[in-house]
Amino acid sequence: MRSLQDIHEEYDFLDADERYRLLIELGRELEEMPAALKTDATLVRGCSAQVWVYPTGDAEKLHFLADSNAAITKGIVALVVSAVQDKAAAEVAAMDVAAALEPFDLRNQLSSNRTQGVPNMIALVREHAARIAGA
């Protein structure tokens, strides 16, 4: 998975249509999430599309599997995951993921329907990280 900084460098040079294509491409690059993990327990509430997030790894190196049934939303999921992937659980729990995503200006680039679930997704990722860090 590309780093958030690498993604932003590319994103910054693109026009609106190309940014959509990049988000779709990022979603396609997500590690496959097995269907058995797409359950009510891993579903992110409040998203207009279905989004699932599942933590793996341990306190030293937290790894997330994630997916969505909508292409652009899946790209947004990929942005969130790239911000936190393979970091220590305590670091993720304390991280301001929303601030890390601010350079992408998603609220002004995408419709509110596509971004409404982002805070819930971030909260779920941070809750998983806090639970694993405290275990």
TrEMBL record:
<feature type="domain" description="Fe-S metabolism associated">
    <location>
        <begin position="14"/>
        <end position="127"/>
    </location>
</feature>
<dbReference type="InterPro" id="IPR003808">
    <property type="entry name" value="Fe-S_metab-assoc_dom"/>
</dbReference>
<dbReference type="Pfam" id="PF02657">
    <property type="entry name" value="SufE"/>
</dbReference>
<comment type="similarity">
    <text>Belongs to the SufE family.</text>
</comment>
<protein>
    <submittedName>
        <fullName>SufE family protein</fullName>
    </submittedName>
</protein>
